[in-house]
Amino acid sequence: MKMLDAATLGSVRVTDEGYLVANVRTARIGTQDYLGVELDRPDLDKVTVYRDEYEVFRKTSLQTFGLLPVTDDHPADMVTADTARMVSVGTTNEEVLRDGDYLRIGIKLTDAATIRKVQDGKRELSVGYTSELVWGDGIAPDGTAYQARQTNIVGNHIAIVAAGRAGPLARIGDSKPITAARWGASPITDEKDAIMADAIQTRTVQIDGLSVVTTDAGAQALEKLMKDMTAAEKKAAEELAAKDVELAAKDAKIADMAKATLSDADIDAKVSARADLIGKAKAIAKDLATAGLSDAAIRKAVVVAVLGDAALSGKSDAYVDARFDILSEDAAKGDPVADALKTGVTVATDARAEYVKGLGTAYLQSVGKGA
Q1: How far apart are the C-alpha atoms of 54 and 14, rounded to whole Å?
Q2: Is the CB of residue 13 less than 8 Å from the CB of residue 210?
Q3: Please, which residues have CB within 8 angstroms of residue 184's CB and are 6 or more apart in sequence?
């Protein structure tokens, strides 16, 4: 028996060649309701059909959904090699996967006119397949009573349809003639679901160079997400720039510290210079306390000790350094009078002899004159 299943396009994108690529979940396990007349049971208003896990995911069944032709609306009959070229607008992928309770099938549309229809809002899918019905009452695992089971499922095509979930809808209580048998039986869909599906407006959003077809709400969410991402990227760039400035400052500080680090030779030179300064200071003002004073402070303290505070009033550091150097030079020359007092006067032997000799000569001259 020819059957229809509902599906909706998802994860839509357009390739560089202009093809439309999407994914669809379809052929779920569980129960679905059909009109009795569609299943050749006009005596029943509704027939609940059960598809178990084994039938839906059986390997021989899964393989039939790979590389199926995709059509724009359902063709009048099954798609075959004789009609595929005329009705096909694309194909399904070779790989068919299980996705929870559903089959997941990738499709690729290659017909430009159909792709434009999808972008304009024709986004529902209806999967055409054949199966066998095994009649008999039973209870599904979820507790739903059914009147038939579906077996030997064989995929034939996937149709892009405009309205509802499986082409023109057939519903219980619908006063219109049943028109859903274009291609097999459609599962009954709630009127509310159909209205909501028809009311959905779609938009195409460009994301990273790709065209994505989605609802207005989805487009708004994507646009907000992209805006938030842009703001987040800007904030991250600003934080990164600030961090770069901070790291540059730290690097400069480390470089300055490295320059300030003295080598052993530098330390020896500074110790020697400090000792020389303290020695000069002590030579000028021996009681001067130098501990804890800087070099400049030592020089100033020495000058003050010798000349007094008034001598430095309003004077520059250069003046203080010059006065210290003068005092240091004077200290290095020494004080002859002070040295003589400390060591006593010493007259050279030759000088003494000349002095005595001079005294004697003067005496004899005075005697000879009758002094």
Answers
A1: 35
A2: yes
A3: 1, 2, 3, 4, 38, 128, 130
